[in-house]
Amino acid sequence: MMRRTNKWSKMKHNLVVLSFFFSSLNLYAQEEQTRNFMPVPQEVTWENGRFDIDQNFTLSLHGNFDDRLYGASQRFLRRLQERTGVFFEQAYVNESHVNQQAKFIIEVERAGVVKLNEDESYSLQVNSDQILLKAKTDIGAIRGLETLLQTFDADRKGAFFMTANIQDSPRFPWRGLMLDVSRHFHPMDVVKRQLDAMAAVKMNVLHMHLADDQGFRIESKALPKLHELASEGEYFTQDEIREIIAYADDRGIRVMPEFDMPGHATAMILAYPEMASAPFQYMDKKPDLSPEEKKKAYAEMNVEHILERHAGVFDPTIDPTNEKNYELINLLIDEMTALFPDEYFHIGGDENEYKQWADNDQIQAFMKENDIPDHHMLQNYFNTKLLAMIQAQGKKMMGWDEILVEGLPKDAIIQSWRGKESLFEAAEKGYTGLLSNGYYIDLMHSVDDHYTVDPLEGGEQLSEEEQKSILGGEATMWSELVTKNTIDSRIWPRTAAIAERLWSSSSVTDLDDMHRRLDVTSRTLEEFGLKHITQPNVILRNIARSGDIAALKVLTGVAEPMEHYNRNPLGLMYTMQSPYTLFADACIADAPDARVFRKLVEAYLAGGTSKENEIKDWLHFWSANHEAFMKLREHSSTLAEVEPLSENLSKLAEITLESFDHSKAIDQEWYHEAEQFYYEARKQQARTILQVVKPMEKLFKNNTKVLYAKHTTSIPKIDCSFSDWNIEDWSLFTSEREYVGGAYRTDSAHYALQWDENNLYVALRMNNFKISADKKYGDALGNFIELIFETEDQSRYTYLLQANNKSIATKEVNETSTSWKNKIKSKVIVMGTLNVQEDWDEAYQVEIAIPWKDLNSKFSDAIKMNMVIHEKASADEDLKFDYLIGTSPNAHLILVE
Amino acid sequence: MMRRTNKWSKMKHNLVVLSFFFSSLNLYAQEEQTRNFMPVPQEVTWENGRFDIDQNFTLSLHGNFDDRLYGASQRFLRRLQERTGVFFEQAYVNESHVNQQAKFIIEVERAGVVKLNEDESYSLQVNSDQILLKAKTDIGAIRGLETLLQTFDADRKGAFFMTANIQDSPRFPWRGLMLDVSRHFHPMDVVKRQLDAMAAVKMNVLHMHLADDQGFRIESKALPKLHELASEGEYFTQDEIREIIAYADDRGIRVMPEFDMPGHATAMILAYPEMASAPFQYMDKKPDLSPEEKKKAYAEMNVEHILERHAGVFDPTIDPTNEKNYELINLLIDEMTALFPDEYFHIGGDENEYKQWADNDQIQAFMKENDIPDHHMLQNYFNTKLLAMIQAQGKKMMGWDEILVEGLPKDAIIQSWRGKESLFEAAEKGYTGLLSNGYYIDLMHSVDDHYTVDPLEGGEQLSEEEQKSILGGEATMWSELVTKNTIDSRIWPRTAAIAERLWSSSSVTDLDDMHRRLDVTSRTLEEFGLKHITQPNVILRNIARSGDIAALKVLTGVAEPMEHYNRNPLGLMYTMQSPYTLFADACIADAPDARVFRKLVEAYLAGGTSKENEIKDWLHFWSANHEAFMKLREHSSTLAEVEPLSENLSKLAEITLESFDHSKAIDQEWYHEAEQFYYEARKQQARTILQVVKPMEKLFKNNTKVLYAKHTTSIPKIDCSFSDWNIEDWSLFTSEREYVGGAYRTDSAHYALQWDENNLYVALRMNNFKISADKKYGDALGNFIELIFETEDQSRYTYLLQANNKSIATKEVNETSTSWKNKIKSKVIVMGTLNVQEDWDEAYQVEIAIPWKDLNSKFSDAIKMNMVIHEKASADEDLKFDYLIGTSPNAHLILVE
After folding, report:
1. Is some CB atom of chain B closer than 8 A to the CB atom of A297?
2. How buried is residue B606: exposed, middle or buried, by Cβ count under 10 Å (0-12/13-18/19+)?
3. Which residues on A lie below 8 Å from B578 (Cβ)?
4. What is the mean pLDDT of residues B187-204?
5. What domains appear along chain B, each with residue ranges and CATH number?
6. What is the pLDDT of residues A532-543, one digit of tens each?
7. Is the Cα dihedral A295, A299, A302, A306 positive or negative?
8. What is the ipTM of this complex?
């Protein structure tokens, strides 16, 4: 039944374009209020006019402001020209252009300072003949320029801004992006274009994670071995850092450095081994490394200074008891606080597992001497020392949430990566903090996951003051699996949605509208040279060894890189030097076609049967794709790992198409194979997950939800013996395979239906369902099965079967539900060694005769039949239904002769 | 008749994919010998095995070499991993990896030096179990690494190198790319990726054009106003220059600086006005600027230091008579020769138009005093001074070919931009030189134009020694119309073909094979982050305001930017700050689909009628595209200028499709409109040219080459009166519109044919043909018409009509041709005032009866009929036929009842 339906493979070529077609749906559709904004401003009143953009566009700056406004205005003009193709007469902005009659007037009260809590508010009045942007600071004006560019539109007649009245200011003062330049180094051009993109979505903090186990990435004149020995030549010079800071300052963005200590310090310790808490030996304590792997790693090195290549948590930790270390760190802090003008200085502090401290007798002795009760407090001792150095330079210390222990001075600021709970806890204890948990963009979650994380949601118990101490959030771009080539598609466009969460009102939450605006924003970000849209194609051309990558684009349209840390199990599959030019690197976190398809299926299942043809077009499209894929495969060894994925997609699409044929539903062999195939296709291939499996499976389940009841003239005895049934095809209830408690549920129930003029007869055998009538523990006790019938008038009738400790009872009426009009004839037996404590039994077997009149129905095919299985979590809880493990198809009953 | 054939617009979607289909023809086809090489090595012997690439690939370096070989080997490993997706056990190359059993052994005799004439030869032996690369220098080894990467291949089984034995060395020692960073600045990342790409195709000189009218782009500590006042902040710091030089050195590439003097020096003079030959006033002598334009320009400036914004040749010129200037220039030369280690130093010297010198009395006096006869020699005086400074630093001076005047010392080196003649002249005079004429990649010519330029071709008269003095060539990337975003698609892939011309044997000339290999090379260059493939799509998405740019890709598939300097007439349409995000900027010099179509049409016209369906598929595809285009157009004002182009393409495709219907050929109204339309469609739209017009027109001409002769029973009188002809549709001979003497020819001739059993009757009226029997001048005298018949046996019969000074004579037999067997009945008259001197007459009118037997044919439809019009160039030349102004269709005669 897995045969290919070949008539479609011939039409592959005209189907390739469907992707264009589908993805361009609602191409220019715009919600009245949010249009193309990202982030959405606080208050927008649209007028119904347009400000036409032509070559006479002029811009004039008024008031007091920093020079950065000239640059920002200049860039604004340039971007506007580049969008419109209009050659402006005024291509420059300088003092000579001050003109009250200019088409675009910017008025600023004072020069802004790039620091936390600087005023970023602005108002924007777009009239049909003139635009007025007012702001307290030039930084606010820069935010307003981005908003104006987001009101840009065009039609046949020309380019224009929609007339509007906008008042805007940020919800949170700290809207950051953390860039990990240690694991993989990301050079100047990468950093600069991130700053451009950040400014475009009104972000205001670039947090540079400059030092970690895998590299120290900044020139230190005080401790030169840091960059000389622990960067392999890939580091920022101090001139470059100054250039980054100036570039960021021009865009109203702070730059905060982080030097992760005392853990995550392998690179520092590589340069200055005397700082370590244990003699430095590369990989000596690498977790989970086999002896062979270690041997190989050593053989490869054979030189003294080689950086850590793997991802993970490593042992090398700075010795907090060695006073000399504080001298070195003080030199570094003095140097770096001078280089970075920002008020905040981040010391990391995360994931110190204390291994080297525990193993070091001298450290243990020090703790005893100094009454330091545990390693947490020892790290606090270390942090406190650093805090003093940082404060001595007039700065504030920030750290990851591990630094929050008893005794941490209130001046320290907490960046929460572990969860909002720790953030709220910090706030309640009087600390200031910001949220990164939920904004880990390296984990390749859908943008929906990030967008729905609100730093304050769930913290309603906090006082207004405490709420204010939560400054905002930061998207964190950890770069273990990200190179300078792929980083753009990992940061963008998802980070724009996080930027909106941190700027816009908490009431801006519509996911569909966010996606619509994110698409526009994503394209617009290409203005800055970002490669998030282009680089995946570059990778695919390389893999395909061809310029014709249509068949691969079909796959990246539906496959997403494995989420969380799953792509790189234990941090051992990849090293920092592995090729990141694989199929998974061309996939993005929100596979675009998968989302379109999921929405289509949702609409279809909610009754939008008009979507059927569109759904089938997609399925035909995917079904035909594997043949095109295989043409590329013949000339590419890199595609070997992708071949199963491609084959799965086409096969699944075929099966799903087949399931639209209702006659398939009673072909049990077909059904079982198909079911198994959906299950298998959920697994990773080429370190990616096919995101259309679930919606396809939903379609499949929906399509096979037909119940056939056969007419019988010989009334079955209700005795739990099915010998008097003449059953050719059993039907099947299956679990939806929700992942529960560490495993997918595999419960299922075979059943058959018969009918005569008086009754509907049900034969039911609950398979593979571990039940024991006399066990003392486990999930078997107190289990229920419900059979639910829903008739044309939408009355529900529930038939409940319960297994208790000693016996199987039948209950014809579920007290909590509509009652049956008559006693229903039924019998239930347990197949197996009932009441033998040591074993699991095999199954229930059930036989029921339900009078039509009790169903308020007669010979009806308008009955839906469901089955629900309830389980208890433990034997101790007697009546609590902990979870629903399976819902049978909400199927349509068909009475056949 | 311009009606849209709507049945096709419905099929647009499945046609969109044709572009994929067509462009992927011969996707993996490879010529046995040249495979994917670019440049092709001197000697290649293929073995029939394969060296399989797996994780156990190892590389070991032997002999004496510079550290650059570690870097190059490391990059080789990285690129190989990134192509194959294989994770090598050996990811690094250092001393620890020396191993005679390594899979890949590199043996080098000595460290190379990055200088002219360094040894770049290598030999490469790829066996199935081991690879051996031998070279005298590490630079040769680096060239060999690129060759090895070009033997990379893959199939289902895996990735491999083809086994081979290769001996290679360059034909020319100087293979350069000149990068103009003055007009538009191109920052570090742009320069670095050009260096990577250059190395990939074995180029060895980066020529940095650092100073021109529009900007001085390098930090000068000696004359800091140069970069401070004349760069708008866009310049290379000296640290950056050192970084570029080191990066280039690592890749075996020299970096030569150019400071253009004494002309093209507006930027220098802006910074140091005291250097000028006339008081500096911006734009004061801007050629061709209207008073309004000047006024606007001044109004915009209003500040002292603003860079020249336009392209062209400007007046500001350094005063060669001012000794102080030499002090300043000497400071600059001392500083820059110290910074750039290369032996060569380029002083520009081009396009000095001497205006300011001629207008400056003091300069004129100086010339008189010093016996300097003309401005050429004055510039030579200037050059000689610079030469001494350069030589004092131990360097050699290079200049554009204007510097070559009497008295130029032989040490100076000539870079020829004006033509090979000046290069050969220089060689004959004993100078060394290199060629850039023919390699002006900024002019957007087809790669074919560059590839077919051989520096030595045509210089056969040169002695071997003189030939050796021609060092090679340089592709020149002038950047008036090129930004950092678009430059990659202007340089690549065409420059790879120039690199091959300069490296490979002169016998490597096959254009089709070059194109095949160029496609592969182009994709491979994406490894270095080059945007030549991706950036056009970025531009199109911006223009379309959509991610769905399929309709625009159809257009960029067939449209090319205007060639030569035509895109920017007089240098005034664009400024350096204009938006270069227009449709033309997304088009490339070799529109890919246009080339495919041209080849198809050529094959078809050469008798490959099997191509008809493929041709029609393209035409249907284009015909349907305009509708898709217009959907984008509704939301884009930038597309306004593209709309006529899109409409033209669709209309032309329709007309060309229609022309396949032979009955159309006798519809004169249709024919005229169509002809006019092809003519109009040749014109630029959106500063691009539709490159499929000509092949479509060829098809049209071919398809309409059907002659219909009607059967008649009433024999016409041969009296030049057509009243006894019953003609409904006249046919038409038309000129092929070759561009002759400043205008397209519009000559045409109406004609009709009739036949009976005895004769073929011809009625011919030569229209619109300016003839005067008694003019003393002009092109009318001595004109000829030839009617040529070619029969089945391929005999040719020519009927000649001649107009002489006084009368029209007929000649039945063209003496130089096959003779007619009988006297043919005919009559010719001139319509108009014959013999009135003052006017032009209207036309010839001709009537002929040609007996079938004289055509050696009877009732034959195998006759082809041509008409040729000859014209004399002038009245004075009596018998010389200067040019063929038109050839009628070589049409097939159809006898109809």
Report:
1. no
2. exposed
3. 81, 87, 91
4. 98
5. 2-25+538-704 (no CATH), 31-168 (3.30.379.10), 174-278+318-509 (3.20.20.80), 706-896 (2.60.40)
6. 999 999 999 999
7. negative
8. 0.83
